[in-house]
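Our collaborator T.R. sent over the components below with a one-line note: 'Predict the complex.' Nothing else. No constraints on interfaces, no templates requested, no preferences about which chain binds where. So this is a plain run: every listed entity goes in together, and whatever single assembly comes back becomes the starting point for the next discussion.
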Amino acid sequence: DTGVSQDPRHKITKRGQNVTFRCDPISEHNRLYWYRQTLGQGPEFLTYFQNEAQLEKSRLLSDRFSAERPKGSFSTLEIQRTEQGDSAMYLCASSWTGGYGYTFGSGTRLTVV
Amino acid sequence: EDQVTQSPEALRLQEGESSSLNCSYTVSGLRGLFWYRQDPGKGPEFLFTLYSAGEEKEKERLKATLTKKESFLHITAPKPEDSATYLCAVQAGTSGTYKYIFGTGTRLKVLA
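Returned assembly:
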């Protein structure tokens, strides 16, 4: 297993467009997390899945954001009607029950123009 | 409100010049404190987990310690390849949450 994979690595979109990111976690990991990081800041929690169930969502996750993890495998994060303030690095991480620390992917950098 | 503060924001060291990074936290019910290293354009890379005051972990030139209010990441005789942003995160609260609260990081530059 080569770790957590995120696709695409970079995405430039026009304001108002919808975008979708994909995350493939480490196969043995049942927990999956999405974070957002802006320049000079630490990652901020967005949402968390255990298997296919979305168990926690941040207040940061507005109605324009939706995340899914069908069949408890890969996950997608969709942003509808993107705004310039959505420009950030979107990080996915995974862990297993009782695991110590997450494994992060390399992130998807979103630029909204 | 749970809070994590890291200092200094940036640190420049000469190769071989040892120093410490600080992570202070104010949380209700600490369940774990985590240190990560992040290189530019990449995701954070896990370094250490600490669970209780007095605990210490070591890895190569890095040593992490934990008290009831703060954690230190000691870097002994750093090399240029240790240059990165070091992030501290805490997991706190009830057992039903697994989110981390991150600090803003310390940007370390080690000069040859």
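Summary for T.R.: The two ends of chain A are 36 Å apart (CA to CA).
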